[in-house]
Amino acid sequence: MTLAPDITEILARARSDLRMGVPVMLAAPQGVALVMAAETLDPQRLADLRALGGAPVLAITARRAETLKARPYDGDLARIVVPPDATLPWVLGVADPADDLKTPMKGPLISERDGAADLHRLAITLVKSARLLPAALVLPLSGGPGFAMRNGLTMVDTPRAAEYLMQASPLHPVVSARLPLEVAEAGRLHIFRPEDGGEEHYAIEIGQPDRDAPVLARLHSACFTGDLMGSLKCDCGPQLRGALAQMGAEGAGVLLYLNQEGRGIGLANKMRAYSLQDQGFDTVEANHRLGFEDDERDFRIGAQILAQMGFSAVRLLTNNPAKITMMRHNGIEVAERVPLKLGGNAHNHAYLATKAAKSGHLL
Ligand SMILES: Nc1nc2c(ncn2[C@@H]2O[C@H](COP(=O)(O)OP(=O)(O)OP(=O)(O)O)[C@@H](O)[C@H]2O)c(=O)[nH]1
Ligand SMILES: [Zn+2]
């Protein structure tokens, strides 16, 4: 019998430590390292880290490295050498593109070339999943588990964690209840909770859809600004209400409300992207400058929820071919694509055009 947390629980702890600016330890066969998220670093922690000696690096994604003209010797990431006199603003300047245009010369930035990057890769995956800027300070340490124990730090076994993070977290239905809606009185809201401590996702079931026929379905990603505030920068609000209205009119359907704000980068990072868009970058370029891919969503979640609700085939309300491909790869048959073209306006015209030109959205 053990009361010790398992790998899922340790990772959930590590995420919340990083969000609060607490270091975590990553262990791999080749060594142990202390990791901190660049975004939540403060001057005292940076000084404490320095006092430990050694040579810290700032792990950033290849996307961010490209903007900074740094060499990503590790393929998908770069390990930027932190100079001995580096200050907190230096670290934040590398991590955060907000002032890139004001201070274009951050370098020269030197990337480390020798040694393995497994710990750094996991560090970036963890800060991303904590919805922080994808940049992590990594300091190799000679003291292993003893150091973590003395300092009360969370210790993560890197190879096991990396393998675990490749899989989609299992989701469990928590509760469902009747929810009469404007579009249909016969509404029901289901809550699904992931095992990894991440955000819950919701399904709105309208009517009593036949499980043996393709169901009218929408996989909607959370958009606080568009869904709730009536933002004109995107088409999310009208798409959400339009999808529900169509399901109401047909008398049956299922809308998944997936908590993957900002195409999976979180609301704070989405607002960073909006700020870059005001500097002239489009929605895809803004994600890349921040160090993210165009789309960081995991659509296995949607497929899993549909399967758990007993659906195996959908008529999918979308303009995004990637959603169709992801459903098919994850065991959900897409019998038909139902276009959902609503909410175009003067403010989101360029955004919708970029999605069509760069992300393959169907017009
Ligand atoms: N990173 C980022 N996310 C954005 C931006 N504008 C909107 N979003 C997010 O994009 C997502 C849009 O979701 P969806 O409408 O489900 O997806 P879609 O890929 O456009 O596909 P369909 O609407 O099904 O055609 C939401 O999570 C929004 O928060 C942006 O400029 N940058
Ligand atoms: Zn939106």
From TrEMBL:
CDD domains: GTP_cyclohydro2. Its EC number is 3.5.4.25. InterPro entries: GTP_cyclohydro_II, RibA, RibA-like_sf. Pfam families: GTP_cyclohydro2. One of its GO terms (molecular function) is GTP cyclohydrolase II activity. One of its GO terms (cellular component) is cytosol. GO terms for biological process: riboflavin biosynthetic process. Zn(2+) binds at residues 223, 234, 236. It is an enzyme of class 3 (hydrolase). GTP binds at residues 218-222, 239, 261-263, 283, 318, 323. It catalyses: GTP + 4 H2O = 2,5-diamino-6-hydroxy-4-(5-phosphoribosylamino)-pyrimidine + formate + 2 phosphate + 3 H(+). Keywords: GTP-binding, Hydrolase, Metal-binding, Nucleotide-binding, Riboflavin biosynthesis, Zinc. Residues 175-339 form the GTP cyclohydrolase II domain. It comes from the Bacteria. The active site is at 295 (proton acceptor), 297 (nucleophile). Its cofactor is Zn(2+). Gene3D superfamilies: GTP cyclohydrolase II. Pathway: Cofactor biosynthesis; riboflavin biosynthesis; 5-amino-6-(D-ribitylamino)uracil from GTP: step 1/4. Catalyzes the conversion of GTP to 2,5-diamino-6-ribosylamino-4(3H)-pyrimidinone 5'-phosphate (DARP), formate and pyrophosphate. HAMAP family: RibA. NCBIfam families: PRK00393.1, ribA. Belongs to the GTP cyclohydrolase II family. This is GTP cyclohydrolase-2. The lineage of its organism: Bacteria, Pseudomonadati, Pseudomonadota, Alphaproteobacteria, Rhodobacterales.
